[in-house]
Amino acid sequence: MKTSSFIIAAPTSNSGKTTVTLGLLRLLKNKGYSTQPFKSGPDYIDPKFHKIACGKTGINLDLFMMREEHMRSTYHELANEVNVACIEGVMGLFDGARKSEGSTAELAKKLDIPVIFVVDAKSVAYSVAPLLYGFKNFDPDLNIAGVIFNRVNTKSHYKFLEEACEDVGIKALGHVPFIEECKIPSRHLGLSIDNLSKYDQMIGKMADQMNETVAIDQLLSITQREKIVLEEKAETSNPDFKIAVAQDEGFNFSYYQNIEALKQLGTVQFFSPIHDQELPNSDLVYFPGGYPECYTQELSANTKMRESIKNYVENGGQIIAECGGMMYLGKSMVDQKGNELPMVGVFPFTSSMEAMKLTLGYRKIDIDDFTIKGHEFHYSKVHQDENVITVGTVWSAREQEVPTKIYQYKNVLASYIHFYFGEVGDLQQLLHHLQNNHVSSVKR
């Protein structure tokens, strides 16, 4: 049995990878193919658009946060279930944390799958030839199987691009014109997630266009690969261990693999800090990130939920909280207009969206005698955290110590970092730390 497997990449960011990926996913769905999308890197937002396009959420594949064997098994396990496995790359093809380490190119090589290149050809014709030649020959272990040209509005323009591909030895798979209404606005340096459903029509229009100008059958033919047979996983879940995961409009940035690891430990149930009145009966609560700053009024007004969480913590409840989840557990939150509203109050600090400044990057965290990895991306900042107990040491991808803090109070661990604990062993290490190193109070 075979699956068409490929990764969509580009010379630079803003070349049209996401637009082409979404159109392709919808077109494949329209043609009756079962498709599993993936996203290279730690992005939470593109995978949500993948679900709109084809009905399945994109799964993150990340060579910094994930061990290689874990990354491979995640990919092949899901790719084996479908006709087409489509990975959306990140940034430029060779852009990595260090040179090309962790890049789209490295991911393609680790998985031994071909690259479908998306090139923005708005201001170039035959001069695209040396660009393609350079990318094709820079790394001979990389297979650039074909090119889709973006923002090409005439057949005569595309003819120059086809000739360039012929001379370089890369298949021209078609082109996509510039369509004004198919633009997706940015939000926080990522795609907007406001009113996601409104993008459905745009994706449909892009799919219809690609059906006319992109050689889909040829693309699927040149990217076919044999399915990889995997060993069956042993079931380890303890149904009596209850795990509650925050999931609603304000909290929805969680890696698929993290949730799967939680399911290996116990019974997972979801709840809403915005809409529900109290925590479910739980042995562990996970607060992922999201956009709680957009729902400060609703979160603050739900006093019963806030009290429920505070009581859970004071009675020894275990919590892992990341970014937006950490902000919610603070004393208060300040929105962009300077309005301050009370939050849960587990920690005495205030998080603020005023004077926003971006902090981002991969993180390696050393806690006790184990290491866990993650990613940091936020515009807010924390005030009045001087007396909060912190644990561990945090490093960048280049092994430089960074000032990001891991806060702890009793059995609660919280940070701006989105932890990756997609392998159950990493999750167990975190819980072991909480159970054996709980902090009874803030500093005095």
Automatic annotation (TrEMBL):
It is an enzyme of class 6 (ligase). Its cofactor is Mg(2+). PROSITE patterns: GATASE_COBBQ. The record marks 418 as: Increases nucleophilicity of active site Cys. It catalyses: cob(II)yrinate + 2 L-glutamine + 2 ATP + 2 H2O = cob(II)yrinate a,c diamide + 2 L-glutamate + 2 ADP + 2 phosphate + 2 H(+). NCBIfam families: cobB, PRK01077.1. This is Cobyrinate a,c-diamide synthase. It comes from Flammeovirga aprica JL-4. The lineage of its organism: Bacteria, Pseudomonadati, Bacteroidota, Cytophagia, Cytophagales. The gene is cbiA.
